[in-house]
Design a protein that fits this description.
The complex is a heterodimer of chains A (524) and B (337). Chain A has 524 residues and is an all-alpha fold. Chain A has 23 helices and two strands. In chain A, α6 crosses α14, α8 crosses α10 and α18 crosses α20. The chains are: A mainly alpha (524), B alpha/beta (337). Chains A and B meet through α12, α15, α17, α18 and α22 of A and α1, β2, α3, α8 and α13 of B.
């Protein structure tokens, strides 16, 4: 007992240390917003807040709905039907994760111009009289963010559908339930934790997205904060808005966690995997038209756009060796940040799973809400901290890596947590009864069980760091350019033929990571 | 197995730190550049060839870099700051981030194109002009930028979104010359004419006018000539607004450079500035983007209208910084897209 207590205290200390580091940007925001006086708060509240709240809320709802429809439908079709090209379909549903939101926004705005591919198609279909729709509104932004984010919901729903216990569905069917009733009353409720986790990741991405909203001029909290900071140098107002954003995220997370806490399903160890049914010919056509449409919009079209512009660059001999340097920089930063983040996240989730107390819950939430802080705010907070506390690190790569770890730690915590939930207390107790010490138990029982969760957390963080722009832009060492930085620099000068190859390399560079996560998901 | 993993991790970290150190080359001058690499590189390379001094370009948005300078304070690694916008330069100067340049160094640049205390100096200037489609006559009545608010242009006007630096700077000039109320009405009229559709790039406005999707647009002059260089037959031409008696003249903005107050290599930084304002540097800097050299007597690209051929609004560049927040307030009040 004494040993156990000691171990938990150690765990608590380690968790506390990591969380404190991760909370630095948050503390910066809280501290800076303290400089606002009451009348400035009132001014912020009455002038900007209502519009921003409405815009942000609307966007979250629309994107959640979009991701739900795209992600769950695709997951169900691929998990429950056997059809030709299933592995390809699986890949096509996750590959959109390799394309940053700002590239999506950029590609679609240029495709929808009247001389772009989609613009010409539109004019061909409807004639000159009907104006080509544009993306500079809530629906347009939601479309872009849904296309770039539905894969999270897909991945988590698909994994849950693959490992869910078929006995419940079989039992329902034996009782005479129709397929539709089985789906609505058994499958979907069982999927709820996975969907909730996927939507949580999507929502946190939406709240903190900077790329797409700034390109499409849709005023969310994040964009408004950025404009306050850089346009007006008004750090206090920016911090005030950030604080409200954090409160919103906190409410959302507590709500989501409450929703999920009542939804813990322990599956027995002898779970039979669901065998997907062979699709009939009619189903096959439906499946591929639906999945094909999703894949076309979320991956194939952007890919073709990148290829076509990269080809232009190639023929103009505009692609030099420096692109390999950018790729190397991106891979280095993403690899380092993802690895550190996964190990740093482990104690937080593990502690919460072991000890349910207000402290462990506080740690978990504190480590999660930072994710909604806009990249520029995180960067500025970290910059201030590093300059005062750790000046030796400043300007080095390590500082950038650590800030990216802080920025994406919540993602690692979130995605490892679902794996940790599988660790029922009895499994650990069994190890202990069989004579394993705490360390051996961790090494031989706990880690192997959550390895899958750690790997997917690593991949998710890796891919997000590969795409990260605002914090990298501010904190990278002098002359250190990553692919997103190059995309941004070239795109802001209209050098599409140089932005496209960088985006293409970003996609290619993320492929090995995608392969790692997909390796265990071969369609059987 | 685990220990191998941890060893690997440590090695990686060391590598990260080591490469972080190697990136910041101690001998090189560091420029925080808010201008596209493509436009800065040629002149910097010429400087390195001539002096042997290495230069590292650290590119990002002008405003973001100014934020960085401000937060870094004395710890900054930057020796120089290049911005696309005089507003940013003056703001940095007001924040005390820049070292005053030697008066002799910058005396060849007109006083209205540099800071009053020489903390920054303009290197190239651009004009805020109109681009019109030559195959239509609907815009024949347009003589002033204020005519862009005329309802006759409904749906035919191309403007950028209002967070564009050039848009903000231009609006500031008009506000200083014509007053706040007139500018508000002008913005309102343009907002109606744009019908919610604004462009995120100036080049797209020129393309839209060339293709007849719009009749007229408000742009920086070089975007027109960049388009014409690629498509010599394009039916677009420049229209210099607000000329003639009583006209306020064309709004100008400059890109410029400043030396960080905290630079440890001020002497080399000064040499770079000297090169940038020299005849040779000016020719390269202005040529790459078809802008106006700020130094008198250096020829601009022959395609663009000569400086002497039109009237420029007499607003000191430093004012662009002072009025910037007022302009942003106005843009937000109107709800400019």
């Amino acid at each position: 007992m004494a040993v156990l207590l000691h171990k938990d205290r150690l765990l608590s200390l380690a968790t506390g240390g990591i969380v404190t580091l991760a909370a630095i940007p948050l503390l910066f925001v809280a501290y800076t917003s303290l400089q606002l006086n009451a009348s400035e708060w009132a001014g912020l509240w009455s002038s900007r807040m209502p519009g921003l709240l409405w815009n942000t809320f609307l966007l979250v709802i629309l994107v959640a709905a979009g991701c739900l429809v795209l992600g769950v439908s695709a997951a169900w079709l691929i998990a429950r039907r056997q059809f030709p090209g299933r592995t390809a379909a699986l890949w096509l549903m996750v590959l959109p994760l390799t394309i940053p939101t700002y590239v999506f926004a950029y590609v679609y705005t240029s495709l929808l111009e009247s001389h772009g591919w989609l613009g010409r198609l539109w004019v061909g279909l409807f004639g000159e009289g009907v104006p080509v729709p544009d993306l500079y509104n809530a629906v347009g932004v939601a479309l872009i963010l849904s296309l770039s984010g539905f894969s999270y919901v897909f991945l988590m729903s698909y994994a849950a559908l693959r490992r869910s216990n078929p006995h419940l569905e079989e039992a329902a069917r034996i009782q005479g339930a129709t397929s539709r009733e089985v789906f609505w009353h058994i499958t979907l409720p069982l999927l709820r934790p996975a969907i909730a986790a996927g939507l949580a990741v999507v929502t946190l991405h939406v709240l903190s997205d900077f790329g797409a909203v700034s390109m499409l001029r849709y005023q969310t909290f994040t964009l408004s904060i950025y404009l306050q900071m850089t346009g007006r140098f008004d750090y206090e107002a920016a911090a005030g808005l950030s604080l409200v954003l954090v409160m919103l995220a906190l409410t959302f997370l507590v709500f989501e966690r409450f929703f999920r806490s009542r939804q813990r399903f322990y599956f027995g160890s002898r779970v039979k995997r669901v065998t997907p049914r062979r699709a009939s010919r009619g189903e096959l056509i439906l499946i591929w038209s639906w999945l094909g449409l999703i894949a076309l919009l979320a991956f194939v079209l952007p890919l073709l756009w990148m290829l076509s512009w990269s080809w232009t660059a190639w023929t103009q001999k505009a692609i030099g060796v420096e692109f390999w340097g950018y790729l190397g920089n991106s891979l280095l930063v993403a690899f380092a940040a993802a690895t550190i983040a996964v190990f740093a996240a482990l104690p937080i989730g593990y502690y919460y799973n072991r000890v349910r107390s207000w402290l462990s819950a506080l740690y978990l939430h504190l480590s999660s809400i930072g994710f909604v802080l806009p990249g520029p705010v995180v960067a500025l907070g970290a910059l201030t901290f590093i300059l005062t506390a750790l000046p030796a690190l400043y300007g080095g790569l390590l500082a950038l890596v650590l800030v990216l770890v802080v920025r994406f730690l919540p993602l690692a915590v979130q995605s490892q947590e679902s794996a940790l939930q599988q660790l029922t207390p009895s499994i650990e107790q069994a190890g202990r009864i069989l004579g394993a010490g705490p360390v051996e138990n961790l090494r031989r029982v706990v880690l192997p069980m959550i390895r899958g969760g750690m790997i997917s957390a690593w991949v998710l963080v890796f891919i997000d760091v590969m795409k990260e722009l605002p914090a990298t832009l501010i904190l990278r060492p002098i002359g250190f350019d990553t692919l997103p930085v190059r995309i941004w620099i070239e795109a802001s000068e209209e050098m599409l033929e140089l932005a496209a190859p960088a985006a293409l390399l970003l996609l290619v560079g993320s492929l090995p990571a995608m392969w790692i996560v997909m390796r265990g998901e071969k369609a059987r | 197995m685990k220990s191998r993993l941890i060893n690997g991790l440590l090695a990686l970290l060391m590598f990260a730190v080591a490469s972080g150190v190697s990136v910041a080359d101690d001998g090189a001058l560091v420029i925080y550049s808010g201008r596209s690499d493509k436009f800065v590189k040629p002149v910097v390379e010429a400087f390195t060839r001539e002096t042997g001094i290495q230069v590292v370009l650290h590119s990002a948005k002008s405003t973001a870099l100014l934020n960085k300078l401000r937060v870094e304070g004395a710890r900054t690694q930057a020796d120089l700051y290049i911005s696309n916008d005089a507003g940013n330069l003056q703001l940095g100067s007001d924040l005390g981030l820049f070292e005053p340049l030697d008066g002799k160094l910058v005396e060849d640049i007109p006083a209205n194109l540099r800071a009053p205390d020489n903390t920054w100096v303009g290197l190239s200037a651009r004009a805020r002009v109109l681009v019109v489609n030559t195959r239509q006559s609907r815009t024949a009545f347009v003589k002033s930028v204020f005519d862009l608010a005329d309802p006759r242009l409904k749906g035919r006007l191309g403007i950028t979104n209002s967070s564009n630096e050039s848009f903000i700077a231009g609006t500031t000039v008009y506000m200083l010359k014509a007053g706040k109320e007139a500018t508000r009405q002008w913005l309102q009229g343009m907002k109606d004419n744009a019908e919610g559709q604004v462009f995120n790039k100036h080049s797209k406005i020129v393309a839209a006018v060339a293709e007849g999707r719009k009749d007229i647009g408000l742009v920086n002059h070089y975007y027109i000539y960049r388009h014409l260089a690629k498509h010599p037959e394009a039916p677009v031409k420049i229209l210099l607004p607000d000329q003639g008696d009583g006209g306020m003249g064309v709004a100008w903005n400059v890109a410029g450079v400043a030396v960080s107050k905290f630079s440890h290599r001020k002497e080399q930084a000064g040499r770079l500035v000297r090169f940038l304002v020299s005849r040779e540097g000016q020719e390269i800097f202005a040529r790459v983007n078809r802008e106006y050299p700020t130094r008198g007597g250096v020829a601009a690209d022959p395609a663009i209208p000569p400086v002497s051929s039109y009237k420029v609004a007499d607003v000191p560049m430093a004012e662009l910084a002072r009025q910037r927040n007022a302009t942003i307030d106005l843009l937000e009040e109107v709800g400019m897209p």
